[in-house]
Amino acid sequence: MEKLSIKNPSNLRTDFLGVKFPNPVVLASGILGMSASSMASVVRNGAGGVTTKSTNLEGQDGHPGPKVITYESGMLNCYGLTNAGFWHEKKEIAKFKKRLPQNPLIFSIFGFSLKEFQAIAQKVDQTRADFIEINISCPNVQSEHGRPFGCVPGMPQKVIKAVKKLTKKPIIVKLSPNVVDIVEIAREVESAGAHAISAINTLGPGMVINLETRCPVLSAKAGGMSGPAIRPLAVKMIYDIYENVKIPLIGIGGVTTGQDALEMIMAGAQLVEIGSGVYYRGISVFKRVCNEMQEWMRKQGVKSIKEIIGAAHD
Amino acid sequence: MLHCTVEQPIIFPVKKIINEAPGFKTFIFEGQLNAKPGQFVMFWIPKIEARPFSVSFQTPNEFQITVMKVGEFTKAMFKLKPGDKVGIQGPYGRPFSLGSAKNIVILGGGCGIAPVFFLLNQAVKSAKNIFFIGGCRSKDIFLKQKALKKIIPDPILMTDDGSLGKKGFTTDALERLLKKRPIDKIFACGPEIMLLKTAQISKKYNIPCQISLERLMKCGIGICGQCCLDDCGLRVCHEGPVFEASKLLESPEFGKYKRDNRGKIIKI
Fold it and tell me: Which residues pair with B179 in a beta bridge?
């Protein structure tokens, strides 16, 4: 197992909405977030914090396989929000926090209606999660449930206001890139009272067709696109959101190296999340990204990662 | 050669189907898979679903997958005819490793005989003394009975009802064998209760043991977290499916529980 070049490196320490993170590299929702053991293994491999798989009150099956395929420079997935429901997740969160109290946990929640969002939101304060992430942007359930709330101007604020009444935990809202103007949605999210924004969720969905069988490979036919191919889009979206809102940002989308993470931070992200990067560089991607960030910082004489947040802006 | 830079199924027509026993079929495909014993592939029936299956045999130009009919997907597999196109993605996972072991025991239980049959074929090339212990409920569903005897003269066969070989469990035969013979390494695949017992016996006799574990897998490439074991978090699809028995004995879920499609804990 690779070791961090410096033990508990102080130059990577950061905080987000007043919560301390040992480093700014966090596990994104939907990857390795099904159990406490899995998330703890991600922390052992260098992540500063973790995000759970998106959960609704009752849980649901999701789509059959094939659920994940890759293409030349990215990945498609159509998990379809598989989860075991709130009561199960609550236990896994408790187990994780007991093992790793110093590593913040973001509890991702979703619903297909305001009512469903409320149903889980009123329970989240029973967990030991540090933050709630409202997932209004999964592109993989459109055929069953219509466009995600994050793609319909006016809907995000309704969800946020409804959820906010039911929890004291800080609220992060995860935005979709599949919109005409992400800044408009970001402003709406801020004015509705969200504490932070994470962006972006997967792009599309996209499709890959198998020629010999003449049919789409993914079981749901299409799937959200992630991985290196979407990174420049994610960087630009974080850059634009940073210019237009004051609440802190989490940058997500195709980050696989320390350079990618630094780029996202310079665009304005305080934390950076990694998902598909686990496929591209193995589960130690978190450690490797931290090492690479530190190496760059050392060369550049950057004492704290906090110094360069938003550095790319005029 | 089945190797691609992207994780997508490669299409193969089914070359031949063998009816192994009631409820068991072997699908034969033409092509070089480059799989090692213990590895698995994602088997895709277009427009239906993809699920993981171990490779049960391989020659330089053919590979086989042996399947037990247990649910909806395997029911669909049983409707396949020679010539039907299916997708194969992989091989994936950590295989069995014979290493330099010279005196080995290979245990297969039920449909777990299939993946260790592949291992046995490879082991005869490098190991000196090989013992094979196969176990099953009864004679009529005992896989590879004849094929086994062609590779190894006297496999130890065990059945629950005594209809073939001796009456009893593979692990009873294992313990009897370990008392008589010096063994360097044990390999096993089968029902989890058998695997747990095998691991415990290997610990008792202090013999290295590799076990192929089954868990529900979704992606096969180590990213979804569905198959992560408690408490180590090891991914069965990536760090497994073959694990050292000592590692599995540290897991509170080994032999006790697993996770369903949603991630909920279910007893074994």
Answer: none
